[in-house]
Amino acid sequence: MSLPVRTQPSTTALRVHGLAGLEPGPRLLVLGAVHGNEVCGTQAIARVLAEFDAGELNLVRGQVTFVPVTNPLAYHLRQRMGDRNLNRNLRPTDTPVDFEDHIANALCPLLEAHDVLLDLHSFHTGGEPFAMLGPQDNTGTLEPFAHAAAEQALVQRLGVRRIVEGWLDTYARGVARRLAYPDASLRAQMLSTDPSYGVGTTEYMRAHGGCAITLECGQHDDPAGPEVAYRAIRNTLAQLGLVDAPAPAPHPAPELLKLVEVIDRLHPEDRFVREWKSFDALEAGDVIGLRHDGAEVRAPARGFIVFPNPRSLPGNEWFYFAQPSERTL
After folding, report:
1. What is the 3-state secondary structure (H, E, C) of the chain?
2. Max Cα separation, the chain?
3. Which residues pair with 213 in a beta bridge?
4. Angle subtended by helix axes 40-54 and 225-239, to nearest 10
5. Number of alpha carbons in the 13 Å side-chain half-sphere of residue 187
């Protein structure tokens, strides 16, 4: 899948497409290209908008808003981020420093104005598409939430088999470990050691009363990725009753995994021992990578590797470790 030809994007506005039904209903926000090299959502949104324009698809209730390119600078550069990762430490600020701060000041009010978010992504290495699910209902301090049932109903109807939970609490544990890094120069390379650095679009949405799903549609260049994203948009519109279409059936055999640990890359010469793909199976003690000094990084138990990134910057996520979840959908 080649990236579309693009001209210099606006750095002063987000392009937003909205439709409002004539009957009340949920308010859905669909995002593409939060990371600029993840274009499957951009392509799927263009396809759905064309169907609305042609009258092949009709919004009958509620609202739907599409942002095909959420980070136009990164999209223009054909890379993950512009000045920094938009999907970390997402919050409005009165003192914007970088391009993503300015985007956040426009994006956060959009998130707050909607009830449901579908955020379309892809990932670096190969592997099966999967969806990221939020926490169970809770009144804790890290990610209090009250809409788990609605999220669970939606995530099972996006069209993917694999579902992953446990993002923010796993990320917070990783941040706590980073605070103990003895190398000051390494810490200087990290964008933040604040637990809120794990807050992206979905976490922000949940914190402001909505529910949200991140859909990872496959590897960046997988030609099937835009179809995965398109099917998810259509299924979400039907599931929420925004269009007159049969409610999609839940996946007959979903697999639910839980992130339990994040491992950082600590040195530019840290390397994997093989080309890992997300959800490659691991046995306890399997060697995953080697530190620059030869120390082995081993799997702590039987599980799966998730988001392996051989090009991650020192002080940032190298890979995640997941195991089967005990949660019942």
Report:
1. CCCCCCCCCCCCCCCCEEEECCEEEEEEEEECCCCCCCCHHHHHHHHHHHHHHHCCCCECEEEEEEECCCCHHHHHHCCCCCCCCCCCCCCCCCCCCCHHHHHHHHHHHHHHCCCEEEEEEEECCCCCCEEECCCCCECCCCCCECCHHHHHHHHCCCCCCEEEECHHHHHHHHHHHHCCCCCHHHHHHCCCCCHHHHCCHHHHHHHCCCEEEEEEEEECCCCCHHHHHHHHHHHHHHHCCCECCCCCCCCCCCEEEEEEEEEEECCCCCEECCCCCCCCEECCCCEEEECCCCCEEECCCCEEEECCCCCCCCCEEEEEEEEECCCCC
2. 64
3. 118
4. 50
5. 12
CA dihedral 143, 149, 153, 158 (to 10 degrees): 0
Backbone angles phi, psi at 68, to 5 degrees: -65, -35
Residues 6+ apart with CB under 8 A from 196: 89, 91
Count of C-beta atoms within a 10 Å radius of residue 167: 23
Of 287, 288, 285, 292, the C-alpha closest to 266 is: 292
- Residue 6, amino acid: R
Question: Domains along the chain?
Answer: 17-253 (3.40.630.10), 258-324 (2.40.50.100)
Per-residue pLDDT tens digits for 65-106: 999 999 999 999 999 999 989 998 899 999 999 999 999 999
The amino acid at 41: G
User: Computed from CA positions of residues 276, 279, 281, 286, in that sequence, does the dihedral angle turn out positive or negative?
Assistant: positive
Q: Tell me the per-residue pLDDT of 153-204, one tens digit each, with 9 for 90 and over.
A: 999 999 999 999 998 888 888 877 777 776 655 554 555 556 567 899 999 9
Report residue 198 as tokens.
């794990």
Q: What is the dihedral of CA 212, 318, 196, 146, to 10 degrees?
A: 30
The model's pTM: 0.91
Distance CA 266, CA 289 (A): 12
User: CA dihedral defined by 72, 73, 77, 82, rounded to 10 degrees?
Assistant: -130
Query: Measured between alpha carbons, how far is 164 from 170 in angstroms, rounded to an integer?
Result: 12
Q: Indicate the pairing of strand 162-165 with strand 255-265.
A: parallel
